Description:
InterPro entries: HAD-like_sf, HAD_sf. By secondary structure, the protein is an alpha/beta fold.
Amino acid sequence: MSKRKKPVIAILYDFDGTLSPGNMQEYDFIPELGVPAKSFWNEAVELAKSQKADAILSYMKLMLDKAKAKSLKIDRKQFSEYGSKLNLFDGVEQWFPKINSYAAQNGLLIQHFIVSSGLREMIEGTVIAPYFKKIYASGFMYDQHDVAVWPALAINYTTKTQYVFRINKDSLDESDNSVINKYVAEENRVIPFSNMIFIGDGETDIPCMRLVKDKGGHSIAVYTPNKKGAKEKAKQLVNEKRAHAALKADYRENGDIFKIVCSIMDKVKASEDIKRAS
């Protein structure tokens, strides 16, 4: 008799404001330009408006233009160094081994994914990068010297949903559209929507939150502790039925996020047990 596979749960995370406070570009990159963060983002918005461009592509191009004007070399190594200095919310570093352990004890397997409008290369430089099966985030093309020369991938609030479907169908390669566009019956999809948990904090996460929630999964809105208006904004997402819960961005074992995610896993486990007994 063949051994039954463990049910797989996918946890999808935004990055900025979800796992890390603030915007990743504001830790080291923008300060090295010698301009206030607010000025940089305002200029990116104006560039998008004037060129009728995507906001993510605009900030990425502005990064390249500003770095060139300042004679800053931004290559893969530098991006990784920026990423290594990013702060993480309480408990994030310990979250992954602990939540993986809870899943294993209950006969489940967890796969972690990033779905972010931030920069892939910076996230890859963080201490938590090895825990992710896949990091979906905006990224650059590079020349023969590994220097960033052009945006390769821009992930905005609507294109984020593409990666939810990629995870659902196990079509994980960003450049491969052969599987993502094929019809796959719900029961044959690798990770059902009901086994997905999306954790995010802002407006760019709303389409993913709503998609996962409406398809039978769970969405959690998190907020930065002590940030003015953040808690109210997260609660509004719950009131608007875009998320199931609004929780403080605290990933420690005694925190609400840990407890809620464990409860969701218990629910998935019970559902799988019922299916197998039927």
